[in-house]
């Protein structure tokens, strides 16, 4: 069972003093396409004005601009799942999981990076990077590029097994599912939660991994603390499960 997941703006720094290569990511046959965007970004960061850098990075902090102005190809790398920080990843708490549960995440979770595109959580070569969600690299929109070039391989990977799409809505611009899939919505007091939805996505992913969930029947039988199924909406290939939050975090 595959799970589509969002990245995080926050990243951990550091890693191994190595360079990423064709073997660092899923879909090695499309590695040159990733490099095309990464090189474009790298060149932009070398040549852009300070204001342009602040805009693409989504920051006003000069130390952050300085940090991300160096050569991305020379930065230390680490596994994708270990690179990301932020609310969803805090509640996932990957490092505290048993090895079998970590392996489940490594092999089944596809994270959609604003810069590197779709990656397996266990992919090994992600450097520290920063690109604000929705920002273009000059006139270039990475999401359209990745949707064009990576949709066929994602369709092939996902067509024969159930999958949960736990991404934020923005990442439909990178990939729009074409085979049956399920999304989750979280409501409290009749209102859809937004910020805390990230936390619950992390919690759900953690429970999927701990319980080694392999299909949607197993998922529907799984109990998730403080969540109760309120409604299931079916529309063509899309199933949406609406959860009522019993006790807020």
Topology:
Blueprint: E1 2-5, H1 31-47, H2 50-57, H3 62-67, E2 77-78, H4 80-83, H5 87-92, H6 99-108, E3 109-113, E4 117-120, E5 126-127, H7 142-158, E6 163-165, E7 181-188, E8 191-192, H8 195-210, H9 216-221, E9 227-235, E10 238-245
Parallel strand pairs: 1-3, 1-6, 6-7, 7-10
Antiparallel strand pairs: 2-5, 3-4, 7-8, 9-10
Helix pairs in contact: 6-8
TL;DR of this structure?
This protein has 249 residues and is an alpha/beta fold. The chain has helices at 31-47, 50-57, 62-67, 80-83, 87-92, 99-108, 142-158, 195-210, 216-221, and strands at 2-5, 77-78, 109-113, 117-120, 126-127, 163-165, 181-188, 191-192, 227-235, 238-245. The protein is built from 9 helices and 10 strands.
Note down, in words, how this protein is organized.
The chain has one domain. By secondary structure, the protein is α/β, with parallel strands linked by helices. 36% of the residues lie in helices and 19% in strands. Helix 6 (99-108) packs across helix 8. It contains nine helices and ten strands. The two termini are 27 Å apart. The longest helix has 17 residues, at 31-47. The protein has helices spanning 31-47, 50-57, 62-67, 80-83, 87-92, 99-108, 142-158, 195-210, 216-221, and strands at residues 2-5, 77-78, 109-113, 117-120, 126-127, 163-165, 181-188, 191-192, 227-235, 238-245. Strands 1, 3, 4, 6, 7, 8, 9 and 10 form an eight-stranded mixed β-sheet that branches. Strand 7 and strand 8 form a beta hairpin.
């Amino acid at each position: 069972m595959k799970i589509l997941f969002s990245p995080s703006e926050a990243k951990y720094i550091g890693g191994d003093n190595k360079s990423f290569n064709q073997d660092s990511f899923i879909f090695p046959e499309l590695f040159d396409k990733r490099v095309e965007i990464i090189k474009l970004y790298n060149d932009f960061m070398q040549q852009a004005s300070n204001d342009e850098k602040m805009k693409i990075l989504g920051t006003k902090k000069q130390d952050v601009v300085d940090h991300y102005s160096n050569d991305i190809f020379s930065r230390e790398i680490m596994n994708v799942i270990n690179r990301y920080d932020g609310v969803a990843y805090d509640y996932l708490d990957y490092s505290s999981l048993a090895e079998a549960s970590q392996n489940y995440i490594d092999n089944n979770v596809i994270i959609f990076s604003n810069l590197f595109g779709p990656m397996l959580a266990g992919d090994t070569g992600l450097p520290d990077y920063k690109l604000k969600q929705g920002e273009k690299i000059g006139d270039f929109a990475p999401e359209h590029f990745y949707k064009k070039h990576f949709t066929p391989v994602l369709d092939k990977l996902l067509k024969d097994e159930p999958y949960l799409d736990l991404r934020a809505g923005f990442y439909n611009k990178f990939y729009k599912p074409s085979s049956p899939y399920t999304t989750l919505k979280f409501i409290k007091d009749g209102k859809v939660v937004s910020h805390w939805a990230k936390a619950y996505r992390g919690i759900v992913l953690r429970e999927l991994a701990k319980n080694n969930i392999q299909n949607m029947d197993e998922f529907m039988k799984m109990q998730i603390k403080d969540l109760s199924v309120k409604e299931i909406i079916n529309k063509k290939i899309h199933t949406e499960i609406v959860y009522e939050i019993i006790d807020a975090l």
